[in-house]
């Protein structure tokens, strides 16, 4: 087979100088973050779009390949809802949270641990035997308690014991974590994935807690993508919450970012998971993409 000519390469949109520059630009970031733990919350459109799921898996494997230590935390609300619909079980929400009785909890565990988690592990392991699936129940990872009796088995995090995750990372494996926790008596609870990612990033003293969302990042005006806030601090975010700039569904995501950096992570990032390879763009380019949140001066 003949080698492609320069013209053939150009016709395919391959620009050698630009791609070479991208690699050069990435080098200092690769060196800087070598050995660093990066907790990535995977959800939203990025999870249900097959192409985005594939590129996400590629990004996670690349992070590992250049010396970072990725940890994946995933949600699965749409998938749980779809399964409940198939079973003919009605779903009730209160303040955005799914009321979870014993039957719904069984479905959530089945979908998160047995389906969604396995799919992510499988997508990563196409590239090598790297990923290991586990839930917050495994190894006492997440100790939980009931959030509100009226919500049933929806949990709050009482504590995180990252020992099992640290052992997997020491073996150069990629933990893929389903957000089911348990209390001291073995009762399971379904826990918000944003919350788990923030708490785990803090417990692991992660360099980055990355949230893949369905928006470009934190917007000063939710109707104006150009109002992206590229960088912010905890005091600045608290002020934006107090004055109503941050409201509605963004409050829990921002709260998870705040908790991550307050409990030990160096930085938190809100990225648009609909953008292919968004992880690489944020971590390994000068301009970055999305919103970066740090502790700041209190």
Describe the fold and architecture.
- α5 crosses α6 and α8 (193-203) runs parallel beside α10.
- Residues 1-14 have low confidence and may be disordered.
- The protein is an alpha/beta fold and 298 residues long.
- The N and C termini lie far apart (63 Å).
- It has one domain: Acetylglutamate kinase-like (Carbamate kinase), CATH 3.40.1160.
- An 8-stranded mixed beta sheet has the order 5-8-2-1-11-13-14-12, with helices on both faces. A two-stranded antiparallel sheet has the order 3-4.
- Helix content is 42%, strand content 21%.
- The protein has helices spanning 6-11, 16-33, 45-48, 50-65, 77-86, 102-125, 163-170, 193-203, 234-242, 250-262, 278-284; strands at residues 37-42, 69-74, 93-94, 97-98, 131-135, 142-146, 155-160, 174-178, 180-182, 188-190, 208-213, 231-233, 267-272, 291-294.
- The protein contains 11 helices and 14 strands.
State the share of residues found in helices, binned by percent.
40-55%
The top-level CATH class is: Alpha Beta
Predict the CATH topology.
Carbamate kinase
Q: N- to C-terminal separation?
A: 63 Å
Question: What is the arithmetic mean of pLDDT?
Answer: 88
How many distinct beta strands? Answer: 14
Radius of gyration, whole Å: 20 Å
Q: What is the helix tally?
A: 11
Query: Topology as H/E string?
Result: HHEHHEHEEHEEEHEEEHEEHHEHE
CATH homologous superfamily name? Acetylglutamate kinase-like
Principal-axes shape call: globular
- Class from secondary-structure proportions: alpha/beta
**Proper CATH architecture:** 3-Layer(aba) Sandwich
Instruction: Quote the beta fraction.
Output: 15-25%
What is the count of structural domains? 1
Taking pLDDT < 50 over at least 5 consecutive residues as the criterion, the unreliable ranges are: 1-14
- What topology, given as strand order, has the largest sheet? 5-8-2-1-11-13-14-12
Main sheet properties: 8 strands, mixed
């Amino acid at each position: 087979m003949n080698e492609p000519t320069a013209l053939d390469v150009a016709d395919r949109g391959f620009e050698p100088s630009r791609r070479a520059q991208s690699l050069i630009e990435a080098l200092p970031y690769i060196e800087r973050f070598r050995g660093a733990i990066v907790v990535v919350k995977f959800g939203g459109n990025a999870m249900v779009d097959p192409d985005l799921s594939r590129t996400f898996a590629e990004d996670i494997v690349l992070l590992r390949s250049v010396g970072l230590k990725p940890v994946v935390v995933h949600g699965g609300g749409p998938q749980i809802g779809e399964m409940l619909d198939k079973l003919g079980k009605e779903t009730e929400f209160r303040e955005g949270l799914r009321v979870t009785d014993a039957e719904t909890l069984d479905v959530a565990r089945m979908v998160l641990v047995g389906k969604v988690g396995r799919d992510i592990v499988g997508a990563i392991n196409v590239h090598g035997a790297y990923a290991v699936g586990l839930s917050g129940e495994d190894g006492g990872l997440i100790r939980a308690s009931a959030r509100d009796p009226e919500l049933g088995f929806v949990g709050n995090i009482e504590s995180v014991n990252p020992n099992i995750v640290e052992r997997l990372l020491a073996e150069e494996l990629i933990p893929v974590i389903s957000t089911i926790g348990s209390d001291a008596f073995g009762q399971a609870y379904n826990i918000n994935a944003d919350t788990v990612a923030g708490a785990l990033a803090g417990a692991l003293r992660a360099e980055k807690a990355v949230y893949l969302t369905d928006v470009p990042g934190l917007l000063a005006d939710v109707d104006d993508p150009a109002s992206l806030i590229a960088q912010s601090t905890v005091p600045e975010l608290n002020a934006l919450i107090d004055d109503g700039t941050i409201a509605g569904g963004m409050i829990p995501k921002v709260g998870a970012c705040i908790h991550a950096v307050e409990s030990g992570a160096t930085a938190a990032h809100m990225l648009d998971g609909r953008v292919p390879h968004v992880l690489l763009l944020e971590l390994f380019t000068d301009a970055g993409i999305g919103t970066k949140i740090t502790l700041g001066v209190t």
